[in-house]
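Researcher: Structure prediction, please.
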Amino acid sequence: MFHSTTAIDRRRDEEGPPGASSRLIMTAAPGGRRPAGLLLAGLLAGLLILPPLAIAGATASDLDWTLGVWEGIRRDGADGSEAPMTMRVEAILGGAGQIRQIEIPHDGGVYRGFAVQVFNEEKGRWVRLYTNEGRGRFSTLEGEVEGDRSTWWVTSVDRPRESRLVSERLEDDRWRRTMSISKDNGHSWTVLWIDELRRR
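Model: Predicted structure follows.
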């Protein structure tokens, strides 16, 4: 099991990082309390009006295979310790987006994460907002899909490193997600954790 000093707790701003040539920009949402419905509506509206940068061949259905309930383990990249996890993926906006909820029980309690993502038609890529119960703010990610693989990149002015999440469809009912970080601008990468998931 993970302990309080492992990847689950000390990296609360990283969903586990998310294709290959995309960059994920991580920014904090404005502070203050707002009604949840208004906040979500505003966030989605902002995602749908990004500057045009078309990528041929990408569609909103590229990640439909992830819909459903998934169970498996998260393995720590440093010490190999494992914790059980569950991920629920649901379609929203008539298939134009998804919401994802993650739960990972560990020695210190339960890590819970939430993401909402939409496919931006003009850019031909996905945009995701991620948070967890301990943060109180959203991070913004962008990802691209290439076949059965998608890559999401994370950068932030207050973090001297890059983060990369690679998502791989191994089989119809098997899914692997690998989060890595780089402290030298992408020249070398260190794995933070790996999710091994099977469809329930």
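Model: The first helix runs from residue 7 to 10.
Researcher: Thanks, that helps.
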